[in-house]
Amino acid sequence: MAKLLLIEDDAETATELLGDLRGRGYSVDWAATGPEGAARARAEPWDAIILDRMLPGLDGLSLLRDLRGAGDRTPALVLSALGDVDERIRGLRAGGDDYLAKPFVLAELAARIEALLRRPADTRETLLRVGDLEIDLIAGTGRRGGRDLDLLPRELKLLEYLMRRPGQVITRALLFEEVWNYRFTPKSNLIDVHLGRLRRKLEAEGESPLIHSVRGIGFALMPDA
Length: 225
Known about the structure:
It is elongated and about 55 Å long. With about 220 residues, it is an alpha/beta fold. It has helices at about 10-25, 35-45, 60-70, 85-95, 105-120, 155-165, 170-180, 190-200; strands at about 5, 25-30, 50, 75-80, 100, 125-130, 135, 140-145, 145-150, 170, 210-215, 220. It has a five-stranded parallel sheet, with helices on both faces. A hairpin with a 3-residue loop joins strand 11 (about 210-215) and strand 12 (about 220). Helix 2 (about 35-45) packs parallel to helix 3 (about 60-70). The protein contains eight helices and twelve strands. About 40% of the residues lie in helices and about 20% in strands. This is Transcriptional regulator. Keywords: DNA-binding, Phosphoprotein.
């Protein structure tokens, strides 16, 4: 049973989240203020932290910065009524692993928690490099060699997933689940379309292929192939 810490000052919201998450099988504790949440976060290990952006006593982003500065790498999901792009970037820069704008559907929050809990330990890294390819997940940019890559958000997410697993063959079903959050494998060429577009952006004239198809299985990022 995964152990979650919820830091939320609105009692009505907290009660709703506690009921839903506990109903899904999680063990969830609640802190209602920033200082209380910070103390609870440091007192014992957690599998994930869900915290509001605006908290009394210590705001959520300051709390996150303090935890990250102390070496705490617990996955954290930031909740906020401030949903514009600049606010999401601030949340990620402060150390958040994901950002969910209010109001939200409870099922989406649960899906995001599931995704955080599935992530390998190295996902704290936000600047990824494989060979001459690099992406900055905070800035949302990519480069290969000396040239910039014009990546759409879904392409960046797809490339991130592959770059965290260089040389590993990834099935279509796994890509649908991890990149598109589908819990089934649709009869669609969606992955082929996105990978085809991504390949064209990654492989300029004279550059070696990076994404390779493995017949009957899936795909792999293999820069030295």
